[in-house]
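Now for one record.
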Amino acid sequence: MKTLEPSLLAADPFWLSAQMDAAERGGAGAWHLDIMDGHFVPNLSFGPHICEAIRGHSALPVTAHLMVQKPSRFVKLFLEAGASAVLLHAETETEALPELLKSIRDAGAAPGIVLNPKTPVEAALPFLRLAEWVLLMSVEPGYGGQTLLEDSFAKIRAMRALIDREKPSVPLMLDGGVTPENIPALLEAGVDTFVAGSAVFGAADVEARCRELMKMLNERS
């Protein structure tokens, strides 16, 4: 099943609840929270209190994507705030990641592993047995509104092949530069879940845009 996770980093914070409601009516399947610490990426974003507030407003799951240098400082905080999934970068605290992924699963949430554009797909292998998600970044993390990197397609196909060989039950998520124009090719390459920020919240009609994207995903499921 193909799903859409709007990235709340791209939403207008003044109209956040209204834009969330519109996206949910349009068929959004979960909320994607990019957690940035100003160290691992050159930007700051949401804290656990935002995750908690979102869970209080919407019944949809919340994915906490930890773009942070020290995920060990944040995992418990976002689990306590109600995150349904917590995704950790393979480039951070590598030796601690297995235990962190296990702690996420033990708390009843879904653990996931994330790879930056320049990180080879093989870097996910040590963590696949513990992961319930694999997320590929198709832009350099830290800012919304970027254009998808063209070499992402080869990496998606390579990761799809690796997952199908090692653990076919794990969905492949993509984050960065997703648009209505490139979704067909991304589906063909093997993406299951699409994180979309500007493509959703940059539209004049958020609900209609989500319906458009979901129609594209459902036609190819």
The chain is about 35% helix and 20% strand. The helical segments are 16-25, 48-57, 75-80, 97-106, 152-166, 183-189, 198-201, 206-219.
